[in-house]
Amino acid sequence: GPLTFLPFESRHFRPVTKKGVKEYGYFVTAEGEPSMAFPGDIRDYAEPDFPFETSDVCFSHIWYSDDNRKEESYENVLPLAKFALRASDRKILLCHLYENGRPDHVMWRMEHAENARKEILALSPHTEVYIPDWGEVIEL
User: Fold this and answer.
1) Which regions in the chain score pLDDT beneath 70?
2) Stated pTM of the model
């Protein structure tokens, strides 16, 4: 059936320096199908102003800071978790892992996604949280 794509401004700007690039997220719906939120490559996890109440599924990118080696970068795990849960408290897929061409200190890996997964589940134990692997098929 027909799909509806609702674009909205995303937050690809760092909260302190305001550096980043303009980006859009998308809320996708189709009659009788799960709604899907793609907030984008988020850098600012302040209270979101989504143009939708909630979605059935959120594709959440992993990003803690500009350098995954710094311990203080892990302080963004809780804000990331709260942001993803605002988009969906039903099902969250943690994405943006192993991006080609990134040096190791800015590449988000399985252990970063697992930290986010644990934080999400601590806040909302009933939420299904997936960390997709290459080629894995996930039924929504």
Assistant:
1) 1, 68-73
2) 0.90
